[in-house]
Design goal:
This protein has helices spanning about 15-35, 40-60, 70-80, 85-95, 100-105, 110-130; strands at about 5-10, 65. It is built from six helices and two strands; from the N terminus they run βααβαααα. With about 140 residues, it is mainly alpha-helical. The protein has a two-stranded antiparallel sheet. The protein has one domain (about 5-130): Nucleotidyltransferases  domain 2 (Four Helix Bundle (Hemerythrin (Met), subunit A)).
Length: about 140
């Protein structure tokens, strides 16, 4: 189990706010893709995945990662969310491995990269929606 110093206990209802952010970022990524704005599409897709991970973890375990290492959230999901499958891990990892490239490197995101990120985000957000959908007010 990951260090508790990098984890906060949160109400399961926090999943709603995180899921709303995930949906908003995903919509923004779709709009950016429609306008061939590949940098914006890629970054919004990554943020959609991060917010969806927060939603799933809050809904299923009442936890939130506060680590600066986004890979820590993957380990929390693996340890606390039984429905976090290898397929979901692949989608989230596909997003996280490109985060620094998309957000901080000087080179532009290619159309191919942006579309791959958008696909990962759509699939991961869909999964998180199922997990977070069980949260009551």
């Amino acid at each position: 189990m990951p260090k508790r110093a990098d984890t906060r206990i949160v109400p399961r209802s926090d999943a709603r706010g995180s899921m709303a952010k995930a949906e908003e970022f995903l919509t923004a990524a779709d709009i950016a893709a429609a306008g061939a704005q590949w940098n914006a599409c890629g970054l919004d897709a990554v943020h959609a995945g991060i917010a969806a991970a927060d939603a799933a973890l809050a809904a299923a375990a009442g936890l939130r990662s506060v680590s600066l290492d986004h890979g820590f959230a993957v380990r929390l999901l693996e340890a606390n969310v039984p429905a976090f499958s290898a397929q979901q891990r692949r989608h989230l990892a596909g997003l996280l491995q490109m985060k620094n490239t998309v957000a901080y490197e000087n080179r532009p995101v290619t159309e191919t990269e942006a579309r791959q990120l958008l696909d990962h985000a759509r699939r991961f957000v869909r999964w998180a929606r199922q997990i977070a959908g069980d949260v009551s007010a």
